[in-house]
């Protein structure tokens, strides 16, 4: 059986994806046939794949022997048969069944690619800043790029030892006016800091979204989420960039900034009396299907415009249900100077706020 976009869009979250991302998903999705009585997957097992019911019916059996029957014509069939890790139900084919199967990790990648493409751009500036409409003056006084960089909230949380290693691993690169350093839609390989010169951030339509200068950085979101670039950065003048490779970025910048909290630690924080807000950055349809009690849904693509509304007096805890999207969200919030933790919620039944 051949799967096309029209069939795939019958299921969530594929109905929210653009044509390009649907094509990527179609290349990785497979069709599997099961006979009546077959087991599609078992409760308690960590699933590497996501199952959708295309034809037939299944019974989902929980640990307490409660049973949910799903037919391919029922509204529930639009969603994955199991969205939890490990699986909380065993799926039995009560008729001959045709299922769509896709790797969970790849589906996670597709979702973060899609939502990252809706963000304004991976840059280190305030999204509400107005762009300077005056012509860029190339003969500007030199600024200490290291001082500007280290003054950013993102770098204030880096361990001192990492700072030294960071500057040792930066690779200088001379660039010319008009040169496109990164291009929208391409894979991320480096994190960039402007040592000298100026640049502009262009969206997919070629419109200037922001201006960058000495000490500004860009390219981190594509590395965190392993996504395609969501903007083009073009030099407005000759200059010099400092480039940090993907592995060094993960080791020295990303991992130290992502502070995890266990469920036990989360409960202790609740009892401390501190103001806490639990956030889920998945799409609303995903959030509706499975959520932590008390969590607020702010999809990743809507997070950046809301950063200025978030209080620095609140501890934000991001559910890890969003996979890579959750990691991108944490990085964005750290850049904004917010106090944020990533909750290891894979084994959570319910979290009460």
TrEMBL record:
Tell me where in this chain the Cyclic nucleotide-binding domain is found.
13-111, 154-253
Which domain of life, per UniProt?
Answer: Bacteria
* SUPFAM superfamilies tied to this protein: cAMP-binding domain-like (SSF51206), Rhodanese/Cell cycle control phosphatase (SSF52821)
**Which InterPro entries does this UniProt record tie to the protein?**
cNMP-bd_CS, cNMP-bd_dom, cNMP-bd_dom_sf, Rhodanese-like_dom, Rhodanese-like_dom_sf, RmlC-like_jellyroll
Which Gene3D superfamilies does the record associate with it?
Jelly Rolls, Rhodanese-like domain
Entry's SMART domains?
cNMP, RHOD
Task: Pinpoint the Rhodanese domain residues.
Answer: 272-353
Q: Which CDD domains does the entry link to?
A: CAP_ED (cd00038)
Q: Know the name of this protein? A: CRP-like cAMP-binding protein
Protein source organism: Pseudoteredinibacter isoporae
